[in-house]
UniProtKB/TrEMBL annotation:
The species this protein was found in: Streptomyces filipinensis
Ranges for region Disordered: 1-29
One protein family per Pfam: Ald_Xan_dh_C
Record InterPro entries: Ald_Oxase/Xan_DH_a/b, Ald_Oxase/Xan_DH_a/b_sf, Ald_Oxase/xanthine_DH-like, AldOxase/xan_DH_MoCoBD1, AldOxase/xan_DH_MoCoBD2, AldOxase/xan_DH_Mopterin-bd_sf
Compositionally biased region (Low complexity): 1-21
Protein name: Oxidoreductase
Gene3D superfamilies documented for this protein: Aldehyde oxidase/xanthine dehydrogenase, a/b hammerhead (3.90.1170.50), Aldehyde oxidase/xanthine dehydrogenase, molybdopterin binding domain (3.30.365.10)
PANTHER family: XANTHINE DEHYDROGENASE, XANTHINE DEHYDROGENASE SUBUNIT D-RELATED
GO molecular-function terms, A-Z: iron ion binding; oxidoreductase activity
Residues of the Aldehyde oxidase/xanthine dehydrogenase a/b hammerhead domain: 40-146
Length: 770
């Protein structure tokens, strides 16, 4: 694949190389630092932690979705041989509540259980089996209550929490409420509960310190926030609690369960011994946050030519038992409810409510993914009613730079939505499957589950998605980094956690590019370093990468100033390339190592994007720092008798600002698209009456390699965002947001059915004979 103006290639593009043959600098496919260890199985995950005198922990969790706690008897557990401590809500010396967004969740339930799996007590013992048996020996008397599991009923139900059932309400009013179009389509849509389903379940180790504090070794993605929460819970000052980030297996979300982390430190402080806890897969499903199940009602108005006139919508997010980050998810859902389209009039009502379902929280593309599925379904309905090609209808309405969002914010970043859509529309379609026994696997359901080839219908559909980058509504997105250089080796200190997004690789590339030093190390992360914030929404590429760049440039100035002064020129006239410093006129030529002359240089810098503001009472405000866009064309084969769906191909076009690492970027896009396939077809955490059914990877169907379609990255638009360091944009979330909508669109095209629910159930794709 060759480069085009404004585009970049990925896998086929050769990496830039140094004289030693290794890729380096921005734009090269520098290999991931821990790729080899993870591939060979030698990477030390958090579950591999060990310490001298180790105790093992277990947590007792509620079997009920809603119940009043009458009594808790821990005497039997405490008397068991090998048990060293049992803790309940009575043993929490500090703040008894925690929560990522809103601190409304108890460390241990004391009076009321609000969701299935809520922690009641924790045990430390000298053997993991003893710990589990002791936890089971804690006797809890419950008065079981009727759970509120329908979010629509939460408005009228008795308060489930002291803070009430309504977490946030956002009314968005934009334009003329009396506006109407010649053509109107309506729809009701439901999005199921998706679990992040990390391959490595949660694990951690707590080690007491001589000063009465504690160190927590965790696979945390936001260590400073976790430290502050833990310190408040333990009744300690933050300087007496340290979090060391270790063994992060990769994160599809802020998936760490603080209700899992906090008992660890309590047990270590109480016993004076190191305590380790490794969650079972069931505990992992019960503990961490899930994607918000969502109910969406839409009405689209358009004129006779297909131009959008008005969008009306009601969006209801099921937050589960606690608030977590539901307010942020709702803001994204309401703000992007109309999608990357020009809508002169929009009236959106959004609510997030508490229920007795499992807690919901941050999962990649939260809020934006749910509304994308709905507004793209509406665009398909409009196209069908108007007799227009679905891609053509979208092209008549797409957003561009300079347009105004329904929240009143002007799109100042690059928004090449039309270019993206045209790229996937014009990409050649895949060949049709052959009706031969040798290629039966091409049929939906595979060789054992396929029906008759004559029942297979092919469909082509489109999805346009958008997400915001960084935090929103006034969030202070700051990060700090230090770059040190000594003996020809550079070290980066930054508390940005490597969750698989490639930050450590990017940090190395930035320093290589700026200082011409090939050997760059990124120090392990702990809370002794200045905070860098959570690892989500592309933050670390922008904010932490920006901080590393600024620090590296400061070191570069320190390195070049003596030489510039000696030769009577400014530092801007000197350049560093492949470890050599040269002047514009060729008079100066030396190596970086010679210029260092044994000195140690270092600098610390911060990066803070421009401020944003909260949405006002009418849902208006400059709430977002930047936006990213994606277009996907899906091709599916559907067995209209069985309802089975095979995703044949997903063609992806995305605006990425600038390609910093081609191979890494392609991998992130492909991973996001594959996650979207799971949302569209298989992933649905079923919770009848609030109880998680089959909390394991047998009952929860993740897409496997056999389910992954051909993913064609047909265009990457490199129109740099001038306010972002390097001009790069976040790439992981927007394909997750867009892929489910595109797949649903293709199934609609193949079957003629409305497909108004995700994941798509077989009965929704069955076409009955007239």
């Amino acid at each position: 694949m060759s480069n085009e103006a404004g585009t970049a290639t990925t896998a086929a593009e050769p990496a830039a190389e140094t004289e030693g043959g290794w890729p380096h600098g921005l734009g090269a496919s520098l290999p991931h630092a821990d790729a080899r260890a993870k591939t060979e199985g030698t990477f030390p995950y958090a579950a591999d932690l060990w310490a001298e005198g180790l105790l093992w922990a277990a947590v007792l969790r509620s079997p009920h979705a809603h119940a009043r706690i009458v009594s808790v008897d821990t005497s039997h557990a405490r008397e068991m041989p090998g048990v060293r401590a049992v803790v309940t809500h009575e043993d929490v010396p500090g703040t008894p509540r925690h929560g990522r967004g809103v601190p409304d969740r108890p460390v241990f339930a004391s009076e009321v259980v609000r969701h299935h799996g809520e922690p009641i007590a924790a045990v430390a013992a000298d053997h993991p089996d003893t710990a589990r048996m002791a936890a089971a020996a804690v006797i809890v008397e419950y008065e079981v209550l009727d759970p509120v599991t329908d979010p629509e009923q939460a408005f009228e139900a008795e308060p489930l929490h002291p803070d009430g059932n309504l977490i946030r309400h956002i009314p968005l009013h934009h334009g003329d409420p009396e506006a109407a179009g010649e053509v109107v389509v309506e729809g009701l849509y439901r999005i199921g509960r998706q679990d992040p389903a990390p391959i490595g379940a949660e694990a951690g180790l707590a080690v007491p310190r001589p000063d009465g504090g504690v160190e927590l070794y965790l696979a945390s993605t936001d260590p400073h926030s976790d430290r502050n929460t833990a310190a408040a819970c333990y009744g300690l000052s933050p300087d007496r609690v340290k979090i060391v980030v270790t063994g992060v297996p990769g994160a599809t979300a802020d998936r760490e369960d603080q209700g899992f982390q906090l008992p660890l430190g309590l047990l270590a402080l109480k016993t004076g011994c190191p305590v380790k806890l490794t969650a079972t897969r069931e505990e992992s499903f019960l503990g961490h946050a899930h994607r918000h199940p969502t109910l969406l009602r839409y009405r689209h108005h358009a004129d006779g030519e297909g131009k959008l006139v008005k969008v009306e919508a009601q969006i209801l997010l099921d937050a589960g038992a606690y608030a977590d980050t539901s307010a942020d998810a709702l803001a994204a859902a309401v703000s992007f409810a109309c999608g990357p389209y020009v809508v002169p009039n929009a009236f959106i009502e959004g609510w997030a409510v508490r229920t007795n379902n499992p807690p919901s929280g941050h999962v990649r593309g939260e809020g934006a993914m749910q509304v994308c599925a709905a507004y793209e379904a509406q665009m398909d309905k409009l196209a069908k009613k108007l007799g227009l090609d679905p891609a053509e209808l979208r092209l008549r309405n797409v957003l561009a730079t300079g347009d105004v969002l329904p929240i009143g914010q002007t799109v100042t970043c690059p928004a090449p939505v039309a270019e993206l859509l045209q790229a996937v529309r014009d990409f050649p379609l895949p060949a049709l499957p052959k009706d031969t026994p040798e290629e039966e696997w091409l049929l939906p359901g595979g060789p054992e589950g396929a029906g008759e080839p004559d029942a297979v219908r092919r469909g082509v559909g489109y999805g346009l998605g958008m997400v915001h980058m960084l935090g929103a509504e006034g969030a202070d997105e700051v990060s700090t980094a230090t770059v040190k250089v000594h003996d020809g080796v550079a070290t980066v200190l930054c508390a940005a956690v490597e969750t698989g997004q490639g930050f450590t690789t990017l940090a190395r590339q930035i320093v290589q590019e700026t200082l011409g030093i090939e050997e760059v190390h990124v120090a392990p992360v702990d809370t002794d370093q200045p905070p860098a914030g959570p690892g989500c929404r592309g933050r670390h590429t922008w904010v932490s990468g920006g901080a590393v760049e600024r620090a590296a440039k400061m070191v570069r100035t320190q390195l070049l100033q003596p030489l510039a002064h000696k030769f009577g020129m400014s530092t801007e006239l000197l350049q560093i390339t492949d470890g050599k410093i040269t002047s514009y006129d060729g008079v100066l030529s030396t190596t970086v190592t010679e210029a260092m002359d044994g000195k140690e240089l270092w600098a610390t810098a911060q990066c803070r994007p421009h401020p944003t503001e909260p949405l006002n009472a009418s849902g208006q405000g400059d709430a977002f720092v930047g936006l990213a866009f994606c277009a996907i064309r899906a091709v599916v084969d559907v067995d209209i008798e069985l309802g089975s769906v095979r995703v044949v191909e997903l063609a992806v076009a995305q605006d990425v600002g600038r390609v910093l690492n081609p191979t890494q970027l392609a991998a992130r896009i492909e991973a996001g698209v594959t996650q979207g396939v799971g949302i569209a077809l298989t992933e649905n955490l079923r919770t009848p009456r609030g109880l998680i059914r089959h909390p394991d990877l047998t009952g929860y169907a993740l897409p496997t390699a056999l389910d992954a379609p051909d993913i064609r990255i047909v265009k990457l638009v490199e129109e740099r965002d001038v306010v972002a360091p390097f001009g790069a944009k976040s790439v992981s979330a927007v394909p997750v947001v867009t892929a489910p909508a595109a797949i649903a669109s293709a199934v609609r095209a193949a079957t003629g059915r409305p497909v108004n629910r995700l994941p798509i159930r077989p009965q929704a794709a069955v076409v009955t004979a007239p």
